[in-house]
Write a structure and sequence with these properties.
Nucleotidyltransferase, domain 5; about 525 residues; about 45% helix; alpha/beta
Length: about 525
């Protein structure tokens, strides 16, 4: 974009004869020229900023959500290798072999029950047409198809006979009626069994099926259960399981390393337009390799009506270890040692790469290359111990970060601070001290992706059920999401864990220990 600045023509007959007046007139015109040039630069800067924002919004709306680069097999490939192919790659491009992709058939687990259907020819056809001899069975072809048997519901009738003394009745003596007590139940006065409650909870909090859709589904099976009834059940169950939730919370703040994230939730009866569901946890997606490990995987949700820093401060009160978070400043009110997220820093530069245009390389590619080197170290040490990861980080990652910091400091003086690349550079510099924390402990992850994966089931479910009606419903969701996600993180099927929990919880008395009902300790009943 070019801006032509034209000076206003001045009639020589109108020029003053006074030298000082002529100087003043010339200075005035120079000042006007400088002002127009500044105005031109401002308009040009604003134009490119709007263009960057427009390109970024197009990418977010229409492009693939993956952050992978063209030709990038995974996150850890070096960008220099992508931009500068070696001799083997160039030679390979001269002899391109086209292969047809073969679709992979669905795998049928060997543990599934199998029903055999034999498709045989008639007895008449088992005689040879040439010589009339009986034909023998030389083999068989087997093909398997998956059959689906719809779920069914049944009514369990609890029959409790009553007994009395006939002799006492005949003599008018008061007799005591004897009858077996009802088995303990999560919801004694309801029709809900442990399996029904577990089905409703997993359908909503694991698979995102709203209660009104479950109401329709149950009607197909002949069970008329309204969404209001199911909602009351979920709130009642969550309130009964509050001690278990609190026990997991007490254990969570005792763990050596934690992570956290938050997302919005709409609550109809809340005075605020936005409420928040916070998630805190420890460990990874899979259970510890040693079942006796003192560090279980815990995922806890916490509903709050705002995003103030006082909420994580109160929830994590007493915890002073590393806490992996994104760049939100609200976590700074906690007593934890905040660890930054390199995935967030990388995402900023990926946005900058988007606005560079296709098939172009620039500053964003250089930054991404530095970050990919850090991830390459992490990939190589993924299966190593915490001590080995720490050693590799201090030997290799520190050198990479030293060079990256020099590059960032240089770029900060040359790129416009309001541009996409300028904001990416400034974000990384502002977060630099937090981004270094993972170098001090091999148990800390390089990024906060584990927290984002934990919050994702809630985000996906929110798209289906959209909002919560009351604060009580949101609190119940936090407890039940915590149980479902913690069960998954410890290698359990949530429905199996919940059925076992609901069968065993009514047997617990107020003074009993409940640690044996935690997801990593429970003995499943099925």
């Amino acid at each position: 974009m070019r801006y032509n600045i034209r000076m206003k023509k001045t009639d020589t007959n109108t020029l003053p004869n006074d030298v000082e007046a002529l100087k003043a007139m010339l200075l005035e015109q120079q000042a006007e020229t400088a002002r127009l040039q500044q105005e031109s630069e401002r308009w040009k800067r604003d134009f490119y900023q709007l263009l960057e924002k427009w390109q970024l919004e197009l990418k977010k709306r229409f492009a693939a959500s993956t952050e992978g680069l063209p030709g990038q097999g995974d996150l850890f490939n070096e960008i220099e290798d992508i931009l500068q192919p070696d001799e083997d790659e160039v030679a390979a491009e001269q002899h391109i072999a086209y292969t047809r992709k073969v679709g992979r058939r669905a795998r049928l687990d060997a543990s599934l029950p199998r029903k055999e259907v034999v498709h045989d020819i008639s007895d008449d056809e088992k005689t040879c047409e040439c010589c009339g001899t009986d034909m023998h069975r030389m083999g068989e072809d087997v093909s398997e198809k998956l059959d689906f048997i719809p779920a069914k519901v049944q009514v369990i009738r609890h029959v409790r006979p009553k007994y009395s003394c006939r002799t006492c009745e005949q003599h008018g003596t008061e007799t005591k009626i004897k009858q077996a007590p009802m088995p303990p139940s999560m919801l004694p006065k309801s029709i809900a069994t442990p399996s029904l409650l577990a089905q409703i909870i997993t359908a909503k909090f694991q698979y995102g099926l709203p209660l009104y859709r479950q109401e329709t589904m149950f009607k197909q099976f002949g069970a008329d259960i309204s969404r209001q009834t199911m909602s009351r059940w979920l709130v009642a169950v969550s309130q009964k399981l509050e001690p278990l939730y609190q026990r997991m919370h007490d254990l969570l703040v005792q763990q050596p390393v934690l992570w956290a994230d938050e997302t919005t939730i709409k609550v109809i009866q809340s005075e605020k337009s936005k409420s928040y569901m916070w998630v805190y946890g420890c460990g990874g997606d899979k259970p510890p390799p040693d079942s006796t490990s003192p560090s279980p995987n815990i995922v806890l949700y916490d509903y709050q009506d705002g995003r103030a820093g006082s909420h994580p401060k109160d929830f994590l009160q007493g915890y002073r270890g590393p806490l992996q978070v994104d760049g939100y400043h609200g976590y700074e009110q906690t007593e934890a040692n905040l660890a930054g997220c390199w995935a967030h820093a990388r995402r900023k530069f990926m946005d900058a790469k988007t606005v560079q245009g296709k098939k172009k390389t620039g500053k964003a590619d250089m930054a991404i290359a530095f970050i990919q080197k850090l991830y390459r170290v992490e990939k190589r040490m993924a299966d190593k111990s915490a001590e080995e990861r720490l050693s590799a980080r201090q030997i290799e990652s520190m050198v990479i970060l030293k060079d990256f910091r020099k590059w960032l400091d240089t770029q900060a003086m040359h790129v416009p601070p309001t541009s996409i690349i300028g904001r990416a550079v400034q974000y990384t510099l502002n977060q630099w001290s937090k981004l270094q924390v993972y170098l001090t402990d091999g148990r800390i992850n390089i990024d906060n992706n584990r927290a984002e994966r934990a919050i994702k089931p809630f985000v996906i479910g929110r798209k289906a059920w959209l909002f919560a009606n009351t604060h009580g419903g949101a609190d119940a969701s936090a407890v039940l999401y915590s149980l479902v996600e913690t069960a998954k993180a410890n290698g359990l099927e949530p429905i199996d864990y919940l059925i076992s929990l609901f069968e065993q919880w009514p047997l617990i008395k107020d003074s009993d220990d409940i640690d044996h009902l935690l997801p990593w300790n429970i003995e499943l009943t099925r």
